[in-house]
Design goal:
The structure is a homodimer of 222-residue chains. Helix content of chain A is 64%, strand content 0%. Chain A is mostly helical and 222 residues long. Chain A has two domains: 20-81, Arc Repressor Mutant, subunit A (Orthogonal Bundle), CATH 1.10.10.60; 85-213, Tetracycline Repressor, domain 2 (Orthogonal Bundle), CATH 1.10.357. The first copy, chain A, is elongated and about 65 Å long. The two termini of chain A are 40 Å apart. Chains A and B meet through helix 6, helix 7, helix 8 and helix 9 of A and helix 6, helix 7, helix 8 and helix 9 of B. The structure holds a DNA duplex (18 and 18 nucleotides).
DNA sequence: GTCTATAGGGCGATAGAC
DNA sequence: GTCTATCGCCCTATAGAC
């Protein structure tokens, strides 16, 4: 799995900086890219700061120069990967019913090809629940809130268009879809015969508008 | 991984052992009880072997005498707690539709009162996905398989009795219910406004038999 | 600004004294 | 059966070389 050359273009304020600032940013990105490769292959445990540094070819102190702590490095790896694959950014509002569960199915499909990331994600999420893990807790809390917001918005659109059952609480359904996706991937890691997609597909039965209740909406796309 | 000289509790061959075996078992149980109290209050991180030992009032080496490793101690804490609350053992087959989701709701209700256990569970589960975690991986794999079996059996009963929609795959639904329960508790820990029960209740919509399709269904499970 | 070298304190695990 | 002592590893912090 190769990675395109690191060309960070996000900080406009750097134009006022002296020089050789870009190099630091590039180096940081380079380390991030290599770290992603490492985690894709292995999980997160057994991957001490020293072990990661060794595989990347730098000292463990160098890693801490760019990332304040091991926790922060791991979070940034997750954040970067998420930036590359945003499954709901391209969601088509016209097909809200399919997109709600479809986005999760696509994400699960991709994750199944790199068990290391599922493991990293699960491990970091669990750790974020403990005290003194402000950085990762903030990341996950924000991430969950963001995805819940997008999903519930998508659900509301579907309800207005009549493609989604109207009496379903969008917030509750959003949380459920995320929970199911996370939980199924964990079960799948322990028992690969668990069909992630098959179980997720059941969630669509919740969304289907009940024909008997279509006194409120009557437009339905087959 | 070396095998400790410690005496396993469930080995029938131990009848040949000299004596003073019962006391060891009693002491082990005593330590387990104290450990459960400790974990109910706090999570699993920050609870090093030394910290647990100090709170219980023994040396950390004593803990390792009764439990081969930290991993094993934590698993036994979970196992013991589960032994005390088995939510599907008492399931009433006559009300299969309600019991499927109901059991999870009851478990979630109880867990919400002791966040430390949810945290311990999540942390240990995440760790079990890593290499060299044979003991906890075996525990979770067995646990998930057992609950899936019970749930799917309950679902089949409900389908035969007509209380549960017939075209739902029992195995896939069982995995989904467990996944949702686990995932929702995690989200709830990060954002208490997430309504676990409200989201779980949506799963019941999947089970509801569709009156319009009742006559379309002709094949039954053998 | 970038990175190396080094040190401190905590961890799980083990060995051997009592 | 339980303890003290100790080992090797870990994360983190920091001083200072380039």
């Amino acid at each position: 799995m190769s990675t395109p050359p690191a060309v960070p273009t996000e900080d406009p304020a750097s134009s006022r900086r002296p020089r050789s600032y870009a190099k630091g940013v590039a180096r940081r990105q380079e380390i991030l890219d290599r770290a992603i490769e490492v985690f894709a292959a292995k999980g997160s445990e057994g991957t001490s700061l020293r072990a990661i540094a060794e595989k990347i070819g730098v000292s463990h102190a160098a890693l801490l120069h760019y990332f304040g702590s091991r926790e922060e490095l791991l979070v940034e790896v997750l954040r970067e990967r998420e930036r590359r694959h945003d499954d709901y950014r391209t969601a088509d509002d016209r097909r809200a019913h399919d997109e709600v569960v479809g986005g999760m199915v696509r994400a699960a499909h991709r994750n199944v090809t790199v068990p290391g990331f599922v493991s990293l994600y699960t491990s970091l999420l669990a750790g974020s629940l403990e005290p003194d893990r402000e950085y990762s807790r903030e990341f996950f809390a924000t991430r969950f809130a963001r995805i819940r917001d997008r999903l519930s918005a998508l659900i509301r659109i579907g309800q207005e268009e009549g493609g989604i059952r109207a009496d379903v609480d969008p917030e509750a359904m959003a949380a459920l879809v995320i929970a199911a996706s996370d939980g199924l991937q964990t079960q799948w890691l322990l028992e690969p015969s668990v069909g992630i997609e098959r179980s997720l597909a059941l969630l669509e039965l919740i969304l289907e508008p009940d024909p008997a209740e279509s006194d409120k909406n009557s437009s339905r796309t087959a």
